[in-house]
Design goal:
The structure holds two protein chains of two kinds.
Chain A (H helix, E strand, L loop, with lengths): L3 E3 L3 E4 L5 E7 L5 E8 L3 E10 L2 E4 L6 E7 L2 E6 L8 E8 L8 E2 L3 E5 L1
Parallel strand pairs in A: 2-11
Antiparallel strand pairs in A: 1-3, 3-8, 4-5, 4-9, 5-6, 7-8, 9-10, 9-11
Chain B lengths: L2 E5 L2 E5 L4 E8 L5 E7 L5 E7 L5 E3 L5 E5 L4 E6 L8 E8 L7 E3 L3 E6 L1
Parallel strand pairs in B: 2-11
Antiparallel strand pairs in B: 1-3, 3-8, 4-5, 4-9, 6-7, 7-8, 9-10, 9-11
The chains are: A mainly beta, B mainly beta.
Amino acid sequence: DVKVTQSSRYLVKRTGEKVFLECVQDMDHENMFWYRQDPGLGLRLIYFSYDVKMKEKGDIPEGYSVSREKKERFSLILESASTNQTSMYLCASLTTRGQETQYFGPGTRLLVL
Amino acid sequence: AQSVTQLGSHVSVSEGALVLLRCNYSSSVPPYLFWYVQYPNQGLQLLLKYTSAATLVKGINGFEAEFKKSETSFHLTKPSAHMSDAAEYFCAVSGGTGGFKTIFGAGTRLFVKA
């Protein structure tokens, strides 16, 4: 059974803190994604990675960075958390071997005070 | 550029009634189209997908969707709603010039009344 896990389900941080969100997939997928989900806006792509140490900006990369040192792990970093980064963060992975289906983790609900 | 429009941020139906969630897309090339479902406090899971085979696609939990190129639509239907169908539904498009990047609609929350 395919699995994408995220390090925390709920997180509360203070403005200015550095925040790490981790995502691990066990499917040997090449591609991994970080989205944020806000009511009425659907999912918006922050960053994605198509290989180890490779990353590409998505639609809303400002205030975020990512790291992919191993194929199974993709980390999202908020360098200095701000209140407008309060959101649900979803990680997903995808193989390019003909399936086109993204597999999602359960999400991390982040509150920045 | 690809885009997805879901008509109606909230849809309410009675248990046993037809479910119809609307999705229109724009894409300059034949796309892959998806419907994902998100239950409360969970991630998204795939309901069904269209990948240029049959235009009527059957998914899990009795849902199906029909790809209509002339209308650029991919509406999701289920003949008889069940209480457990209450969730948020996302239409999405990928492929073509967007590569494997997926564009999601804003979502439609489905309420099912007893």
